[in-house]
Amino acid sequence: MKAWFYAFFMAWGMFLALPCPFPKWDEDSRGRMLVCLPLVGVIVGGLWALIAWLVDLIRLPAPLAALLLAALPWAVTGFIHLDGYTDVCDAMLSRRPLEERRRILKDPHAGAFGVICLVLLMLAQFAVFLSAKKAASVDPGALLTGIGTDKLSEMLSKPAAPSVRYGLIPMPKLAFLLSLALIPVASRAAAGLAVLKLRPMQTSQYAGMANAGRPVRGHILALIIMLVLVAAVPAVLFGLSGLAPSVTAAAYFLFCLIGYKDLKGMNGDISGFALSLGELFGAAALVLLSAGTL
């Protein structure tokens, strides 16, 4: 248990810009950090959902709300994943031979392709949340009074209404906030699996991490269970409105494989590239499904 305690705070210190309450490194716990990535996602997602609730509570103008919601997951992580996203875009779009692409990947300077793709990503994420005004309109009173013990028991004791969109619990506002909170959890569970299963580049910080802190098979199983729960539970509870975490994970794996095949190996930059796009696609799915435009 002590090793897992260390691993969680090591993951916090490495992947979050928030002050770590227990900044201690334990090399024996290094291999467990990947399993703790979804817990880091809980922190990011919880803050994301909290801000979504607060901006509606104070009736913040839509452009400002969209800017806050678009930027929050990047700011909380210290923009670490955007750095990887930019590097991978630079490398892949250069269309150079493999060794040259890998050299560009490790170049600390941002190239034109990376900057262009970063601007497009930021605009896309801003546009997604600017379109979320109707879907993200949260009534704080409904959240505070509508999910009490009595109300929840009443809802769960009734036969589920035949609704594909809202699943067992027809509370679209709660579905929006919970699904938003689970998007970073799904992306990081997928990231942990990808790092453990895909062959790392020799220069990757993940080289050797997968073999540190046995048993790796148990780590993979734990991540699979977390990913299945994060994907399945909101979909069952909220129907189409709860599919955003599943879309996030699917998009992560898709873009991760694109980067992996193009650069012939896995590293943190590719994971950041896939995570940034996975969360964008997850947020877009959430807004579109919640707004009823699909």
Defining traits:
294 residues; globular
Task: Describe this structure as you would to a colleague.
With 294 residues, the protein is mainly α. The protein has one domain (34-138, 167-291). Helix content is 68%, strand content 0%. It has twelve helices and no strands. It has helices spanning 2-15, 37-57, 62-76, 80-93, 98-106, 112-130, 140-146, 149-157, 172-197, 216-238, 244-263, 268-291. The relative contact order is 0.15.
Layout of strands and helices, then pairs:
Elements (H helix, E strand, L loop, with lengths): L1 H14 L21 H21 L4 H15 L3 H14 L4 H9 L5 H19 L9 H7 L2 H9 L14 H26 L18 H23 L5 H20 L4 H24 L3
Helix pairs in contact: 2-3, 2-9, 3-6, 4-5, 4-6, 4-12, 6-12, 9-10, 9-11, 9-12, 10-11, 11-12
Describe the structure concisely for a colleague.
The protein is mostly helical. It has helices at 2-15, 37-57, 62-76, 80-93, 98-106, 112-130, 140-146, 149-157, 172-197, 216-238, 244-263, 268-291.
What is the H/E string?
HHHHHHHHHHHH
Helix amount, in percent?
Answer: 55-70%
Distance between the termini: 45 Å
Give the averaged pLDDT, no decimals: 85
Q: Indicate the structural class.
A: mainly alpha
Continuous helix count: 12
Q: How many DSSP-defined strands?
A: 0
CA radius of gyration: 20 Å
Give the tally of structural domains: 1
Q: What does the overall shape look like?
A: globular
Largest sheet, in brief, is: none
Poorly predicted residue ranges: 135-147, 155-162
Measured by DSSP, the beta-strand proportion falls in under 5%
